[in-house]
Design a protein that fits this description.
With 92 residues, the protein is mostly helical. It contains 4 helices and no strands.
């Protein structure tokens, strides 16, 4: 019984963190109307939208590269290559 609980503990933790984040976000945006947020986003200039998308993409690219470098550094590069091949086979 205890072993089964230990196996389910990561799932329970993930679900509880997801629930907590949803409640926190909903409480934070309670005073804001979604129509006002969409209106604000529609008033942004195209150059600002492109800049935001470019900087966000650059940030994700840097984080991904840093992860690859970490796996290479600890000599576990084969994990990434095998998982990438599996990902490619599943989604192609």
């Amino acid at each position: 019984m205890f072993r089964r609980f230990i196996q389910c503990l990561p799932i329970l933790l993930a679900v509880s963190l997801l629930t907590l984040s949803i409640v926190t976000i909903s409480n934070h945006f309670e005073s804001h109307n979604p129509v006002n947020i969409l209106h604000y986003l529609s008033n942004l200039t195209t150059t600002r939208k492109v800049g935001v998308i470019a900087l966000t993409s650059l940030g994700y690219l840097i984080m991904t590269g840093y992860d690859f470098w970490g796996f290479y550094y600890i000599n576990q590069w084969h994990i990434i290559k095998n998982n990438f091949c599996l990902f490619y086979r599943v989604f192609s």
